[in-house]
Amino acid sequence: MSPIGSTDAYSPDTSIVVENVTKTFSLRYHRTFKQVTVAKFRGQRTKDEFNAVDDVSFTVKQGESIGLMGLNGSGKSTLLTLINGTMKPDSGQVLTRGRIAGLIATGAGFHPQLSGRDNIYLNAAVFGLTEEETKDRFDDIAGFADIGRHLDSPVGNYSSGMSSRLGFAIAINVDCDIFLADELLAVGDKPFKRKCMSKMEEVRDSGRTLFYVSHAAGSVRRMCDRVLVLENGRLGFDGDVDEGIKYLHYDSDDENNDDDELGADV
Amino acid sequence: MSEAGRSGYVVDAPLAPPTATQGLLEVFRRRYLLKLLVRREINARYSGSFLGLIWSYINPLSQLFIYIVVFGELLDRGRTEQFPIHIFCGLIVVHFFVETFNAGTRSIVRNKALIRKMALPKEMFPVASMMVSLFHVAPQLVILTVTVLIVGWSPSAVGLGSFVLALGIVMVLGTALALMFSVANVYFRDFASVVNIMTNFVRFGVPMIYPYSIVSERFGAAAEYYLWNPLSNAVLLVQRAFWVGTTEDPAATAATELPDNLIGRGLLMLVISIVLLVVAQFVFRRFENKIPERLT
């Protein structure tokens, strides 16, 4: 596979390794010929870069459930796409063990023209399921998504809530070893949020690694046993849940609205 | 709380980078996913269409009609025997290649919804475009076979071999170019337009609307360079397979209208195309890292 000798350096129960990972994005491009020429002529910069994830390192053991927190734009989703393999880090390395499934940034990679049914097969195949495995799980997925007869209409017509329901239903049913959940509850309604939370608890208790991105201190407290906080792409905090939440000052406005602990997940 | 492996859950897999790393081999390994992507592409193309797949017959037939009238009746005026079949042999190759190249170049940009959120080998998409185009060769092949059978052609092993070789050349060459230009198109959408212009040349750069004998007459020894175009070879191979057998004296036709050692040249072109595919994979590998973030 890959020429990484250091793989053996990690114990067999290591699930995720993130080692000095940096991902750089260009902030703006002067993309057209005219723009580039004008910018060069004026002596402006044609490119500006920033590190969305900046020299982040941590390891996760199999079965840990990690709450990934941080303000908007702190690099949470980028870190998740690096772990899920959609992007490659510019430097450093990411190693994972086993099948990864989950949702990145509210919603799955669906094809808008295809029906929900076809997207289930396609998405499951992307996660690495065979046709038979998908057939076996199809009823579970459709049942969990619970979108009724919309299953056969194109996903492009779905509401954002419906498509994230379907995305979650697929991801949670593919028997992954690592589950990534990125603000997935942001658009679901309350009953569905409850259903997701209990399903994720099930996943967590079965010994899978869970990576949970949320702004809701309450649900992080309930789901996770470790918190990572990202600040401008850097790892600001790694450790105990309550301390992590305190670190973010999310605890103060959390005390008085217990009932909103799920609803605040936006 | 943070003790690992709560219920002794053990993952029997190596610790490895989550990015798919084997390129085209990975595409082959995940054939089922490829199949779904190809099927999706074909369904999407005819979704909302009443005639559906029949369009894949109507399109080549209408083009054939234009070429026959304009080039057969107005320009060539009976110089070439069985001219419609001569053209159609070329049309199959040109269509297949142009579709692969055009659709393949756009494939990654078109599938950004999937690529930005899911980890899958991105080579899937240009390869799927090629397969979709290959799928559309079938109806044209049916039209051609029926036509030549009516005219009185009989199949031969060499003919069949030539056709398969021609398909192989276009498949490999088309995939190679689609790979390279699909990633280029992510960086600059200009490349889709460049490809469009390039494919315009293809139509006239192959011996389709004119016979190969004209090229060798006009250019003499320089016709050798004309044959360095793999697509010219592919067209000539298909003509060897179908057209030559429909003429009055196939042996004479083959001697004047085809270059020497056609099969040998074809094999060489296949090898060159394979080398190009390896280069294309390398180029793709080199630039694919930035694809997700460029796809906005």
UniProtKB/TrEMBL annotation, chain A:
Ranges of residues in domain ABC transporter: 33-257
GO molecular function list: ABC-type transporter activity; ATP binding; ATP hydrolysis activity
Keyword flag ATP-binding: yes
Domain of life: Bacteria
Matches recorded under Gene3D superfamilies: P-loop containing nucleotide triphosphate hydrolases
UniProt entry keywords in alphabetical sequence: ATP-binding, Nucleotide-binding, Transport
CDD domains: ABC_KpsT_Wzt (cd03220)
Keyword Protein biosynthesis: no
GO CC annotations on file: membrane
PANTHER family membership: TEICHOIC ACIDS EXPORT ATP-BINDING PROTEIN TAGH
Similarity comment: family membership: Belongs to the ABC transporter superfamily.
Name of the protein described by the UniProt record: ABC-2 type transport system ATP-binding protein
Taxonomic source organism: Nocardioides marinus
